[in-house]
Amino acid sequence: MENVHENKINSVGQQKKSKWSQILKEKWLYFMILPGLAYFIIFKYVPMWGIIIAFQDYSPFLGVWQSQWVGLEHFQYFFSNPDFLRLLRNTFILALYDLVFFFPAPIILSLMLNEIRLSAYKRTLQTFVYVPHFMSWVIIASISYVFLTTGGGLVNDLIARFIGTEVNFLSSPEWFRPMIIGQIIWKETGWGTVIFLAALASVDQEQYEAAIVDGAGRFRRLWHVTLPGLRSTIVILLILRLGNFLDTGFQQIYLMSNSLNRSVADVFDTYVYFVGITEGAFSYSTAVGLFKSIVGIVLIVGADRFAKKLGQSGLF
Amino acid sequence: MHKMHNTGPGRVFDIFNHIFLAVVAMITVIPFLYIIGGSFASESELATRSFFVIPHEFTTNAYNYIFSTDAVLRSLGISILVTVLGTLVSMILTLTMAYPLSRPTMIGRNLLLNLILFSMLFGGGMIPTYLLVKELGLLDSIWALILPVAINPFNLIIVKTFFQQLPKELEDASKIDGCTEFQTFWRVMLPLSKPVIATFTLFYAVFYWNDFFNALLYLTDTSKWPIQLLLQQLVMVANTGLGDLQEASLYEPPEESVKLAVIVVATVPILIFYPFLQKHFAKGVMLGSVKG
């Protein structure tokens, strides 16, 4: 009995010793990781700790340590504030539009590109449609301003010539959402085909040959061979998109919003910016940001579970 | 297979498909062509002609003007500095962190990976990060555009997965030769990682060049504005001319063409590197779709 006990202590001691000798032996690994680790601690984990100001009346003069605790007051204020429903609605509608109008676009475009047999022509088309992906949102927004503005904008010149009156795209609430989705479609559809074209390239050619032997025409081959080949890619991207459902791009929305379309343009991120940075309501805006983060994490974990249920490998 | 395409509805579809895709390609590039063409046109031509790519009367007035002001040159300089410095910092941090995380023998590796994963799902958010940057005294410093976003965790994980896939024999061999871990990393692993290094260097460089958010958040001093923020002020914020950003404007600016010229100036670096970007970004997408 005692012997066994002693042995146990010994082996634990040895394990500890070997752990340390292992660390010593590979000490360079630990030196190497230090800068990166410092980055994650300082710029990722310290701000997480900073979330506690959402439960305080944070004052920059008093600092985090001295500021007064207020519990859930900011959350109560936010949920009873009409802003809350407005933000939720704006974010939700934009995300839904994105899903309905943008999500299928790269799939359709890649199917069409896939039908081009002349590879030089296909490559040229790809080179063209990928360009906007690499441009900043400031450039996309600037180009939109140049084209859509009233009194000189190209699009409005054309519209005025045909209809007689100009359309105030940039500052009317009813045009905000179509404009945002239009920009996303213009910027990202081309690039979005990369992943689908790769999936299409990996579809087994023998299946096509077999389908031809069976007398399947072009559209039947598309339906029975090509689309099933894309299914798992589509499902995983759809799930990823649902996981990031609330992530409307801050830069794009900020750039395209102004005092005239703010009623439909405000989403959680831009609201946090305006209330927090511009107006200095640090605690309240942190609470709003925290609410969004928590909903976000629930969505991602939910999407991952869902993916696993469908037999996909999950997101992590 | 090809015989089928020449007849009936398939043929009609092919014709439609070719034309449709050509139109799509035109729609993506025509706005850029107009912007470039318009930046070389005179003010009166911009005001009277609706759409054109090649101006009747070629003039570099807009460029002469923007390069005679300090504001654009200074902003370009800052954007270049932030892009070069930021990419360097990001690559060093990403590579030196990814390598240890890729070694299966490293103790604490799983804990660290979980900490990184968690930070991808949940974060402090805009305001706590802003307050931290402020506390660190980085407001109105170009480091505020670099340090808070120095490591992209997605890139980190992909690079880590790449290191993991390198043959283990290489590491063993260099250890037998008496190399330390760092020497193995520096002399054996890095030379083998050139394609991955190229890909992520471009990823980071494009990010830094295009970033507008951090400049908006952390810089109030107009003399430190990168080109993206200057462009936004110029085109979108009404009644701001370049003249407002410096002491004295030389002459009445040709307004519309100046806007177009600044858009071109902010776009050109991306277009110059575009062939590389296209190749390497596509590779990055593929690397990213392989899970770590």
Textual characterization of the structure:
The complex is a heterodimer of chains A (316) and B (292). In chain A, helix 5 packs across helix 10 and helix 10 packs across helix 12 (218-243). With 316 residues, chain A is mainly alpha-helical. Chain A has helices at residues 2-25, 27-50, 63-66, 73-80, 82-102, 104-114, 119-130, 137-148, 154-163, 173-201, 205-213, 218-243, 250-256, 262-265, 268-278, 282-309, and strands spanning 56-57, 68-69. Chain A has a two-stranded antiparallel ribbon with strand order 1-2. Chain B has 15 helices and no strands. The longest helix of chain B is centred in the N-terminal third of the chain and has 33 residues, at 70-102. The model of chain B is unreliable at 1-5 and 246-252 (pLDDT under 50). Chains A and B meet through helix 1, helix 2, helix 6, helix 7 and helix 8 of A and helix 1, helix 2, helix 5, helix 6 and helix 7 of B.
Could you write a compact summary of the structure shown?
The complex is a heterodimer of chains A (316) and B (292). Chain A is mainly alpha-helical and 316 residues long.
CATH-level-4 superfamily name of the largest domain in chain B: MetI-like
How much helicity do the residues of chain A have?
A: over 70%
Name the overall outline of chain A. Answer: globular
Return the domain count of chain B. Answer: 2
Whole-number mean pLDDT of chain B: 88
Name given to the CATH architecture of the largest domain in chain B: Orthogonal Bundle
How is the biggest beta sheet of chain A arranged?
A: 2 strands, antiparallel
CATH architecture of the largest domain in chain A: Orthogonal Bundle
List keywords for this structure.
heterodimer; A: 316 residues; mainly alpha; MetI-like fold; 2 domains; two-stranded antiparallel sheet; B: 292 residues; 15 helices; 71% helix; globular; disordered N terminus; transmembrane (chain A); MetI-like (chain A); transport (chain A); membrane (chain A)
